[in-house]
Design brief:
By secondary structure, the protein is mainly α. It has five helices and no strands. Helix 1 packs across helix 3.
Length: 97
């Protein structure tokens, strides 16, 4: 069974990666997007790295600014987890041989 703390960290990191992807696709700097959202660029950087959990309100605000639906931040999460698991399995298989 997955520990809730590790699942929470995975979710924070996944959403953070999605935030960064959306920001870069809109050619926005950390500072510019942070200013639009009303946080420091350091705080936005922590969201992007998954170090801090983003509130639902801030995530909605980001979605509006970045012109993506809120669910976009969660899309493909299960697929990404499966790809990661397959990669790890392949590494262990090679290591065991």
């Amino acid at each position: 069974m997955t520990h809730p703390k590790s699942t929470q960290l995975e979710l924070n990191e996944f959403i953070g990666t999605r935030i960064k992807t959306a920001r870069k696709s809109k050619n926005l700097t950390l500072a510019k997007l942070a200013n639009q959202v009303g946080v420091s660029y350091q705080q936005l950087q922590k969201y992007e790295k998954g170090h801090n959990r983003i509130s639902a309100c801030k995530l909605l605000h980001l979605a509006i600014i970045l012109k993506v639906p809120v669910v976009w931040f969660y899309e493909d999460m299960e697929r990404e987890k499966q790809l990661l698991k397959e990669s790890i399995d392949r590494l262990f298989f090679k290591f065991e041989q």
